[in-house]
Amino acid sequence: MSLNWFERGTYTTPAPDTPADYVAWAKRAYEHIRQQQQVPVSEPTPPPESPPVEEAPPAPTSFLARAAALRQSRLAALKASLVTSEPAAPEVAPVPVPTPATPAPELDEGFLWSAEILAAQGRRPEEVTLEEINWLQKLRQGLAKTRRSVLNQLKAIVGQGPLDERAVTELETLLLQADVGVTVTDWVIQQIQAQIRQEALPPELALKLLSGLLRQVLERPYQHHAPNLTPVPGQLNIWLITGVNGVGKTTTIGKLAHLATKSGYKCLIAAADTFRAAAVEQVKIWGERAGVGVVSNPSANADPAAVVFDAIGAAQSRGVELLLVDTAGRLQNKQNLMAELQKVRRIIDKKAVNATVESLLVLDATLGQNGLRQAQVFTEAANLTGVILTKLDGTARGGIALAITQELGLPIRFVGAGEGLMDLRPFSSYEFVEALMGI
Ligand SMILES: Nc1nc2c(ncn2[C@@H]2O[C@H](COP(=O)(O)OP(=O)(O)OP(=O)(O)O)[C@@H](O)[C@H]2O)c(=O)[nH]1
């Protein structure tokens, strides 16, 4: 099977020890990606005229400035080493360079940051793909608003030195502003206070402590749910995709279908949001983009359960492994919504006895705490097993991810950070917190 894009995997390679090792790792990953693209490594990185580090920027004083300067110097070292280790340009007639499927990677600060995140998780540079690097950069850019509006101030507080009571109060305000929610904020503050009562924390350790606490909150649902959500190959998996209209359900189904086909799964979509005719048309367009068939019923206001019935039949006869079911999301009438989702569920349980069923709620991150209230309704109606958080690219409320895991007790399974086919990936608490807090 090809690379499984649903798997987060646990990697065993030890993370690099020193900053220099991280640079070497990034260099190998960069060269590996360039080789995969069959583009000569030589042309895009002109030697720095004079190493940027030696251009004597004003002496950084704060912890944040020092960290940024350190990253810049690593980047300069990485570029320089790439240039010096190149073979001489071959003296052969130019061979037409195949057009790469995706543009050549930029060896920039974003690449280095992404490489560090992958290396720290025990990945090997030879396994890394450009899509992963691009995704991490996208996630980091997506969370930039949250980071800038709130968390940069937050880091400045913990980065200034030992935390006093005033700093703790400021921390509290900032976490609430990021839509982290009262419960999580209280818990984080309690933990931090317990720690600073014992010792004054240097800035680096205070930041680490904070990141660790945020990760703990995001990972709490794994006590009751598996940490990964991967379709079981060779059997039918049915994922019910629920959520209010406009949160990005259809787009998400298209993106999931794309991940599935890329990973080698046989995938099918059931257009069971029959309430709006346009919804069926939209889902068909996404199905086409992802190269996945769509089962629908052309008659107006067709019974969604009947569409699901037909789709299960088609899935079983075609050996489909992942059936994605688009459901209606109107909330005007909770009873109807509940009855409809329950009917769909009954059909699945009857007709696909052995299928692995997931019920995933799509939430729009830009709605912040309001999204959580919608979620309560679906929790009652749809027997939810996880959440997909969309539109992280357009919000300063990225902290809502923490409120979701805390308040709903459900794992975040995927995050969306853009409108393109590739802009959705399985959730990783490590990557999320690094993108949120990353310097
Ligand atoms: N910026 C951004 N936009 C997104 C994302 N996901 C979806 N969208 C946009 O959100 C809008 C609504 O997306 P849909 O997929 O149609 O939402 P829906 O929940 O299916 O809504 P209905 O079709 O009305 O049921 C579209 O313009 C999408 O392009 C995301 O991760 N980031």
Automatic annotation (TrEMBL):
InterPro entries named in the record: AAA+_ATPase, P-loop_NTPase, Signal_recog_particl_SRP54_hlx, SR_rcpt_FtsY, SRP/SRP_N, SRP54_GTPase_dom, SRP54_N_sf
Record's keyword terms, sorted: Cell membrane, Cytoplasm, GTP-binding, Hydrolase, Membrane, Nucleotide-binding, Receptor
A single cellular component GO annotation: cytoplasm
Segments of skewed composition (Pro residues): 43-59, 93-103
Swiss-Prot/TrEMBL catalytic activity: GTP + H2O = GDP + phosphate + H(+)
GO molecular function, one term: GTP binding
Location of the SRP54-type proteins GTP-binding domain: 411-424
Signal sequence annotation: none
UniProt region (Disordered), positions on chain: 34-59, 87-106
Oligomer and partners: Part of the signal recognition particle protein translocation system, which is composed of SRP and FtsY.
HAMAP family: FtsY
Name of protein: Signal recognition particle receptor FtsY
Species the sequence originates in: Gloeomargarita lithophora Alchichica-D10
